[in-house]
Design goal:
two-stranded antiparallel sheet; 4 helices; 52% helix; mainly alpha; globular
Length: 115
């Protein structure tokens, strides 16, 4: 019987993060990128690069998977004029607000612990 091998990921010190590894964070970033209007997957990626440059960036594959998952869960819907574009639903806006509050509370707790 062979033993399973594990892969370890090595990075160069000081190198940028390799990407986002958490689905919920990716979904939240995608929801936030859609607050200013309808976008397709490539426009979501561009908006994240332009406005969230200091954070780990999801790959294009992660963005498209997130768009499909959020659409399936009715947090997004397709734009009527162009089915490649997505827009937030009311439920999606509420979910984003709840996730933002949770992230703010986490950040406040982290800062309080450091003081």
């Amino acid at each position: 019987m062979s033993t399973p091998t594990t892969r370890t990921r090595t990075t160069t010190p000081g190198a940028p993060a390799a990407g986002l590894r958490d689905r919920e964070r990716c979904d939240t970033l995608v929801l936030a990128a859609l607050t200013s209007g309808d976008r397709d997957g490539y426009e979501v990626a561009q908006r994240l690069r332009d406005t969230a440059a200091g954070t780990p960036q999801p790959s294009a594959q992660q963005i498209f998977a997130s768009l499909h998952r959020l659409h399936r869960n009715r947090l997004l819907r397709r734009a009527p004029a162009d089915p490649r574009r997505y827009r937030l639903t009311t439920t999606g806006s509420r979910a984003l607000a709840a996730r933002t509050r949770a992230a703010d509370a986490y950040a406040a707790a982290l800062h309080a612990l450091q003081d």
